[in-house]
Write a structure and sequence with these properties.
Largest interface: A-B, 48 and 50 residues
Largest sheet of chain A: 2 strands, antiparallel
Distance between the termini of chain B: 31 Å
Radius of gyration of chain B: 20 Å
Radius of gyration of chain A: 19 Å
Number of helices of chain B: 15
Oligomer: heterodimer
Distance between the termini of chain A: 37 Å
Low-confidence stretches of chain A: none
Shape of chain A: globular
Helix content of chain A: over 70%
Strand content of chain B: under 5%
Order of helices and strands of chain A: HHHHEEHHHHHHH
Chain lengths: 289, 338
């Protein structure tokens, strides 16, 4: 059992990444009906921007804050010019468009930063191990666990406790009604997309330091995030968190005992959960609650 | 078919004659015959996608699973069971149908974007199976196999004769497809596409119709994939990947969904464009991605759809077509359904 415990903890961290990516994806999906296949590309972009900033001599902490914000600017520009015309049209169009964007992005990263990954390590203060009393654990992983937790809690508070969050949740339910009541839904869509990209950006920088940074590194998190959305229940924040953690732990533990099944296990989990609960673990109809 | 029967028939005959002389024409156009075969096979795969996206109104963004299952089904049965030419193709199609039977019931649970999400996710299962079970499938490197001889006759088809065999398959599938979408079954699918709730109230078991459409689509894609496997004598995991699905969906949309000839046109542009670009520039993925963006923003009805619209406008006629509901002109309702 002794060697399972750290694997479970690693699985929880991996799962927290899936949860955070899944939350960004479903924010965008629930409000605008857009499956953002370029979500992983935005994560990679944030990672590379942070890498570029740190290489240029800035502080890692500054890069952690600035790179996601720069990514949000790119994201909002893309949303305004390319994705906006596709709202209310068949989802096939936004799927194809964001897929095309991810192809372009991947090639651009390759042209600028090379095909192979670049080394991007966390700051010295976060390297090394921390004693947990019974075992030692890498400090950076603990930091990531804390950071992802903060993101999730902040998002829940934002959605539940602020007027803007309320408007977002209302727009998911009935965007025509909230438009009639005087909310500019176009601005709301833009804000929502930006929020999804911001979360992806922060996760992207952290993931770049933990899991490596190459032109496809963000995309590797995309598919587990899809499965997380399905397992957790579409539209449920709690579901995304529980689903993500469940999948992360399942993958880590399977990697330890049956490495050949490490990718398949999440699909098996997904199939089983869909059989028992077609809407996913916490599935509601498109409301973040 | 919006073109009217006669125009459609004339187009079909002209196309067929053209396709029959491709092996003679290809050298003058600096095209390898294998690329022409590839155009036909991806056109066939796009036809399978077209049945779902153009006629049933569900988005198969994981369809490459069926395409790749066809290729692997063929390759594995040649390798391990020494299947013949037609036998291996049959096993390929069977593999796809079994795949569809396995994941179909899960897909039917949701509609709209959630259907697409489920399709993408479940499609990836087969990718990872091929990727991981290295002993059987060769894993990431893929598996090589030799194109077997035709059973009984001992013919070893290659290049030109293989092209003609594929053309025969293509024509047969296209005719069957044409008959299918004009049949009461095909009409029911269009009814589901236009308004599933209404179709259900009219007494159609829409789940069953969509399931059968998925099975037929999988069979068509499986045949295309099996033939593709025989064509390149190779099967590799990326054939099953959702990137491949995206390519096939793009071909369908690019040509024009809900049209008979659209997939062929889309495949022609995509396959040949890709072939030229990828050998000319190392960063070919950028123009490829730009093609996706341009198609979505510039030709949402596809090239053929746009042309047909222009012809119709000149005639001043109005014909309601299955495809029109895709563009949000009919209903302002959100596409998300439970």
């Amino acid at each position: 059992m002794a060697h399972v415990a750290p694997e479970i903890f690693n699985g929880l961290i991996l799962g927290a990444f899936y949860a955070v990516v899944a939350i960004g994806l479903s924010l965008i999906m629930n409000l605008t009906g857009t499956i953002n296949l370029a979500h992983g590309s935005f994560m990679t972009l944030a990672g590379y921007l942070a890498f570029a900033l740190v290489s240029a001599g800035t502080n890692w902490w500054f890069a952690l804050a600035a790179a996601p914000l720069l990514t949000v600017i790119v994201g909002i520009a893309v949303e305004r010019t390319l994705i906006r015309p596709l709202y209310r049209r068949d989802p096939v169009y936004s799927l194809l468009l964001t897929f095309g964007l991810s192809l372009i992005a991947e090639e651009v990263y390759r042209l600028i930063w090379g095909t192979n990954g670049v080394p991007f390590s966390p700051p010295l203060a976060l390297q090394g191990a921390v004693s947990l009393g019974f075992t030692y654990f890498p400090a950076f992983r603990l930091f990531i666990a804390g950071a992802l937790l903060v993101i999730i809690v902040a998002l829940v508070l934002f959605l539940q406790r602020t007027r803007l969050g309320l408007r977002l949740r209302a727009a998911v339910q009935d965007n025509e009604m909230i438009a009639a009541l005087g909310t500019n839904t176009q601005v709301l869509y833009m804000f929502n997309f930006g929020l999804g990209i911001l979360i992806a950006g922060v996760a992207g920088v952290l993931a770049a330091c933990l899991l490596g940074l190459n032109p496809q590194s963000g995309n590797a998190l995309l598919m587990p995030a899809f499965v997380t959305v399905i397992v957790g229940g579409m539209g449920s924040l709690t579901g995304a968190v529980v689903g993500g953690l469940l999948i992360g732990v399942a993958i880590s533990v399977t990697t330890l005992y049956l490495p050949a099944f490490s990718e398949i296990v999440m699909y098996v989990l997904m199939a089983v959960i869909l059989l028992i609960r077609p809407r996913g673990l916490f599935g509601e109809e498109g409301i973040f609650g | 078919m919006r073109m009217g029967n006669r125009a459609g028939l004339i187009t079909a005959i002209v196309l067929l004659v053209l396709l029959m002389f491709i092996p003679q024409l290809a050298p003058h156009l600096h095209l390898a015959i294998s690329i022409c075969t590839e155009v036909l096979l991806f056109a066939m795969a796009a036809m399978g996608v077209n049945l779902l996206v153009g006629y049933t109104g569900v988005l198969p963004f994981g369809n490459a699973a069926f395409f790749g299952l066809g290729a692997y089904g063929t390759g594995l049965t040649i390798q391990f069971w020494h299947a013949g030419f037609f036998g291996s193709l049959g096993y390929g199609v069977l593999a796809s149908i079994i795949g569809a039977l396995l994941i179909g019931p899960f897909l039917l649970r949701r509609r709209g974007i959630y259907f697409s999400l489920l399709f993408i996710a479940f499609g990836q299962v087969f990718y990872f199976l091929a990727y991981r079970f290295t002993d059987i499938t060769g894993g990431e490197d893929g598996m090589n196999f030799v194109r077997p001889a035709v059973e009984g006759l001992g013919w070893q088809l290659k290049d030109e004769s293989f092209y003609y065999a594929m053309l025969l398959f293509f024509v047969v599938v296209a005719i069957l497809f044409w008959l299918l979408v004009r049949s009461p079954f095909g009409r029911s699918l269009v009814a589901i596409k236009e308004n599933e709730t209404r179709a259900r109230y009219l007494g159609l078991n829409t789940d069953r119709f969509i399931f059968v459409a998925i099975l037929i689509s999988a069979a068509i894609e499986g045949l295309a994939g099996a033939c593709y496997g025989l064509s390149i004598m190779f099967a590799y995991p990326l054939l099953l990947d959702w990137h491949q699905s995206g390519n096939i969906v793009l071909m369908t949309i690019l040509g024009g969904t809900g049209t008979i000839f659209g997939p062929l046109l889309g495949s022609l542009i995509f396959v040949i464009g890709n072939d030229i670009l990828s050998s000319a520039i190392p960063w070919w993925q950028i123009p490829l991605g730009a093609l996706f963006v341009a198609c979505v923003l510039g030709f949402p009805k596809g090239i053929l759809g746009t042309i047909l619209d222009a012809i119709e406008r000149r005639r001043g006629g109005f014909a309601y077509e299955a495809r029109d509901t895709m563009h949000g002109t009919v209903s302002s309702e959100r596409e998300i359904q439970p």
